[in-house]
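User: My instructor asked us to take a sequence, write out its structure as tokens, and then describe one feature of it. I'm not sure where to start. Here is the sequence I was given:
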Amino acid sequence: MSAAPRTWLLDFTPCPAGFPGPWRWLPPGVGAAMDWLRAAGLERGARAGLAGLNTPATAALLLAAPLAGVTLVLLNRRLAPDDLAAQAAQARVTAVLAAPGHPLAAHPAAHLLPESFPAGPPRLPPTPLADSEAALVLFTSGTTGAPRAARLDLAALRAAGAAAVAHLGLGPHERWLACLPLDHIGGASMVTRAALSGCALLLVERFAADAIAPALTMHGITGLSVVPTMLRRLVDAQSGRRWPTPLRTILTGGGPLDAELIARCTALGVAPSQTYGLTEAASQVCTLLPEEAAAHPGSAGRALPGMALRIRDDAGAAAPAGTVGEILVRGPGLFSGYEQADGTLSAPPADGWFATGDLGEVDATGFLTVHCRRTDLILSGGENLYPAELEGVLATHPGVADVAVVPHPDAEWGQVPIALLVARHAPLPDAELATWIAARLPGFKRPRRWSWVAGLPRTATGKLQRHLLGGPEVRKSGSPEGEGERRSAV
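Assistant: Let's start with the prediction itself. The structure tokens for your sequence are:
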């Protein structure tokens, strides 16, 4: 059994009057981190690759770099060293700031990070980035293909953080549990939100449900951010015990929640608040508030202050309320473009609307429901099948530990859904699983085939990498075809 993850409580204090830069609150160590950057030879205008782990030093550098005029390129610890080096080269970094144990710790340009920086003001005055300068460069998660380098200017980072703070009502009275990786926008945005609100952070070295569950009570946690796989494990670890009284907000992003998990979480006393966000929007676009969660299960909430949503139909026109189409977003938190290897940026859309590639619908009151990536949609006999819906049903079987539903070509129907299943203990007999599925899904939604696999490819934040699921052979199962229940294709 591995050791329990370490935790650090980061208390934020107000910045002194007249302190320059984007932040209103800072944790200990930011001043020393600024001096450390300068001692490493990083002057204003430099670009550094941050190969950090979930430690106080990484959190301090996320806030210190903009104050020192340094752009950070966040490098995902779960990638192979060669891939990370290639990303660092593409992003034109001149130095790598690496934690011991990170794959890039042996990089020729690496400066090894301490676990934390000492408290105290900087010896040299801040030289902060301008609003129009790049604060962060992050490579998109690669759930649909090769990652791209998204550039977030300081103004966008601050606007996105301020919108989330206002929407969630964050302030110094809050304590937020931070277990998402700090090298992804979901983790990094928690740090910037704290620097704009004064919210304390309980930083967790790595996610481990059995260790985090007692930490919620021990530290009086009022909110946490997780992905669905993390939430499922936390609910399991509660073993029916209610959430501790201070906890009021459970933000979930990185994919939709199934109805069963929503119900289990809610039964413990706090309904999960789903969010919809993306790297290109510096994290959240929409967030379901705790007080809205019980009445809007399955929704990702309404747009944050300053952000706008639009649903576009196949003809490119604005779709009416309740109609599924592509999700477009606009607002001050959007990125400035994708960086190319030569440093140029992709041209932003002329009208300011960013096409996300995700499919969803907005109801008459502005609540968004996200269905899937456009490329994940299964078109079967004229029906639109959403993988997340089918996955949510299959995931409720006690013998299924993980599941993915993908399209498979079919001569009669065009495409049919097939399932890749990870067994919790041992694969189930075909007839037993087919009977169970038939009781829960209409015929046209039932997977026609399935295969038991050892595991599914996921990113560090738990997102399913569907583009890596095209290879395995899927054996035929006993799943009934159910043609009689399929609706007309015309």
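For the description part of your assignment, you could build on this observation: The chain is about 25% helix and 25% strand. Try explaining in your own words what that tells you about the chain.
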